[in-house]
Amino acid sequence: MRIRAIVGRASQSPLYSRVVGDVIIQVRANGPYKISAPVVIVDAEGREFVAPPGEGIVLCRCGHSANKPFCDSSHKRIGFVADDSASRVPES
Fold first, then answer.
1. Which of 10, 14, 48, 58 could in theory staple to 32 by disulfide, Cβ–Cβ 3.0 to 4.6 A?
2. In the chain, how many domains are there?
3. Do residues 83 and 56 touch, judged by C-beta distance below 8 A?
4. 86 in a domain, yes or no?
């Protein structure tokens, strides 16, 4: 799945976030990925998902959402614990 930014400007990067162009993707502790700018989400067949309206969207990380790729808070119900063992890139 690819995520393409349409518009939006990030002013600051919160902890554990990375600025990619004008989009911030924030990894929430034991929760979803929050994307803080309008984006178009395209599936493997090239179809675009209609993202919910608002300031941003949240994408499922636990794999249990009934509304994939979007989060429906299933991570809370199942007690999802993220594996954050990936190496961190030092901030400059």
1. 58
2. 1
3. no
4. no
pLDDT 10s digits, 38-76: 777 888 888 888 776 777 789 999 999 998 888 999 999
Q: Which residues of 25-59 are buried (b: 16+ CB within 10 A; e: fewer)?
A: bbbeeebbbbbbbbbebeeeeeeeeebeeeebbbb
In sequence order, what are the beta bridge partners of 42?
A: 2, 48
Question: What's the token pair of residue 14?
Answer: 């919160």
Alpha helices (runs of H) in the chain, residue ranges in sequence order: 74-78
Q: What is the pTM (predicted TM-score) of this model?
A: 0.64
Here the tokens at position 49 are 């998902």
pLDDT confidence of residue 9: 39
* Residue-number span of the structural domain to which 26 is assigned: 2-78
pLDDT per residue over 15-33, tens digit each?
A: 444 445 667 888 888 999 9
Distance CA 63, CA 88 (A): 23
Residue 90, domain member (yes or no): no
